[in-house]
Specification:
Order of helices and strands: EEHHHEEEHHH
Strand order of the largest sheet: 2-1-5-4-3
Strand content: 15-25%
Distance between the termini: 35 Å
Number of helices: 6
Number of domains: 1
CATH topology: Beta-Lactamase
CATH superfamily: PAS domain
Length: 172
């Protein structure tokens, strides 16, 4: 699949009662995507299945957010996050997502399950400013150190607020 999509300013929106659902294996390959996910992504089901979930990653999302997500998931913790996804045509759509590990009968993690819904507009303005500052830290640090640089910025931001990541994200 061509991952060289150029972002545009064409925004798509979820309806208030829409939910995007996807399931991945341990390496982030898409095993399932519901109809709304397929429609918003602009990819066919065939194109999405077995592709890396980052096929819909928008470059406006700091790599540090994904590092935080993988850190939390590796500890068998859930994560809530505001994510800007990119469609096949370069358009974008914001979501408020909940990512959680999936388990087998013995309690082993077998993959990840994500449910995303329409975010509050007020939250997007706060998150956009935060992510912009995190991306600036990534640019300054260079590609190799980018995720750690933006995650450090996020941790300092949260420390100044006196909140955990979960408290902050769920308060928006």
């Amino acid at each position: 699949m061509n991952n060289k999509v150029t972002p545009t300013h064409k925004e798509r929106s979820l309806h208030d009662d829409d939910f995007i659902v996807s399931k991945t294996d341990l390496k982030g390959r898409i095993l399932y995507g519901n109809r709304i996910f397929i429609e918003l992504s602009g990819y066919s089901e065939h194109e999405l299945l077995n592709s890396q979930h980052n096929v819909v990653r928008h470059p406006d999302i700091p790599r540090g957010i994904f590092q935080l997500m993988w850190n939390m998931l590796s500890k068998k913790k859930e994560m809530f996050a505001y994510l800007k996804n990119m469609s096949k045509d370069g358009g974008f759509y914001w979501t408020f997502g909940h990512v959680t590990p999936s388990y087998d009968d013995r309690g082993n993690v077998t993959g990840y399950y994500s449910v995303r819904r329409k975010p509050k507009a007020e939250a997007i303005s706060v998150i956009t400013d935060l992510y912009r500052a995190m991306l600036e830290q990534e640019r300054k640090a260079g590609a190799q150190d980018a995720p750690n640089a933006s995650l450090n910025y996020l941790n300092q931001f949260l420390e100044q607020r006196g909140e955990s990541y979960e408290e902050f994200i769920l308060s928006l």
